[in-house]
Amino acid sequence: MSSIISLVQRVRTMQNPVEAKPLPDSKPIKFGILGAAAIAPSALIDPAKSHPEAVVYAVAARSHDRAAAFAKKHNIEKVFGGPNGYQELIDSPEIDAIYNPLPNGLHYEWTMKALAAGKHVLLEKPAANTAEETRKMFELADHKGLVLLEAFHYRFHPVANRVKAIIESGELGPVKSTKTSLAIPRGIMKPDDIRFNYSIGGGALMDMGCYTINAMRYFAGVEPTSVLSVEHDLDSPQVDRKTVAKFALPGNITSTIFCDLAMPPALKIIPQLPDINATIECEKGRIQIMNYVMPTAYHSITVTPTGKKSRVEKAYTFPDLGEPWWSSYRYQLEAFINKVKGRPPHVWVTKEDSIKNMEVIESVYAKSGLGSRPKSEYVPPSSE
Ligand SMILES: *[C@@H]1O[C@H](CO)[C@@H](O)[C@H](O)[C@H]1NC(C)=O
Ligand SMILES: *[C@@H]1O[C@H](CO)[C@@H](O)[C@H](O)[C@H]1NC(C)=O
Ligand SMILES: *[C@@H]1O[C@H](CO)[C@@H](O)[C@H](O)[C@H]1NC(C)=O
Predict the structure, then answer these.
(1) Number of folded domains that form the chain
(2) Nearest ligand, CA of residue 304?
(3) Residue from 30, 49, 119, 125 carrying the catalytic annotation
(4) Residue 15 — pLDDT band, cuts 50, 70, 90?
(5) Which of 1, 27, 214, 355 has the fewest Cβ atoms within 10 angstroms?
(6) Is the pLDDT of residue 383 over 60?
(7) Same domain, 50 and 187
(8) Distance between CA atoms of residues 305 and 94, nearest Å
(9) Pairing mode, if any, of strands 175-185 and 97-100?
(10) What is the extent of the structural domain holding 11?
(11) For this structure, is 125 an active site residue?
């Protein structure tokens, strides 16, 4: 019972945090959001409220009315609408950083444009439709001396870091296999959700598989050498609703990923529970994580050394950072702002990590025959 009360308190405070006062000696980083995206409140708007150096200043949408309604609802000062809205927001001298939660197929174009305009970018995952585009974005960010981060928020939360520390401690010996899942029941994503649209970068492997692949690579600590097998269920000819892939990794490690945007009910009638679990089998034991992706509401880390009793760990805060109600996005914002301010972040997801993740996604699509999602038609001006 008390754990349910604390769960409710964490979720409530996460959504309505005590608003932080600006710091007298640090100018806040002003964000502009591209698109009135449903993810923006949890990913940036709510986290920014409790960060003394983050302000969500502007939003742009193709429809001015939509942008205005979103701005009103979320108390955002500035609205950009109409066909030039995105570019006007990017060009606004008031803005320091862009949050790009546009459909995957638009990530490359608008991130390149934002970087060209001198803005830091917090970019939703997966970084783009291809690894090549991902490389180009990071090269431009480096060239311009700007911060670009692919928003793998779970990596900034204490849970992923605690699990990594257990693995690295050697307590359980070397990793032998991993299984990372992210699957939700049918009905949460509407059939016309953009995640099912090939032309703008749809597919379960893109939207959810990107987490399972990232977590596989992070926990295994080595990169896959080959895709052993892929099974999928299709939503439409080029779009996977579900993907299961197996990989070979150095050190005789085998890994499985499972993602599904719309799990059908068991026996056609019993709705399935979300599967957000990860299991890491080591030579001398096993780690099971329940909810490694959004751990703030609830999670567990079950550590079972072979032949011994299990222990269950929780990790809501770092010893020197965070509050139990900080979401993974709030931890991510902490790191992003620190990086922009030239201070060391507690965790970072590097350029190499983001490029590699996209390469692995593309290798699975190559193996399955579905092929990479379409390249952007945007051609940046050659001076960049
Ligand atoms: C997919 O997205 C494109 C670009 O927004 C749109 O033109 C097309 O109608 C969409 N297709 C489906 C099946 O919704
Ligand atoms: C590789 O791993 C498999 C499965 O865990 C095991 O059966 C096999 O003996 C291992 N091979 C080597 C060379 O360690
Ligand atoms: C996820 O892990 C929890 C705790 O270990 C377990 O109770 C649950 O059955 C697992 N879910 C799936 C789908 O494997």
Answers:
(1) 2
(2) 3
(3) 125
(4) confident
(5) 1
(6) no
(7) no
(8) 54
(9) unpaired
(10) 2-151
(11) yes
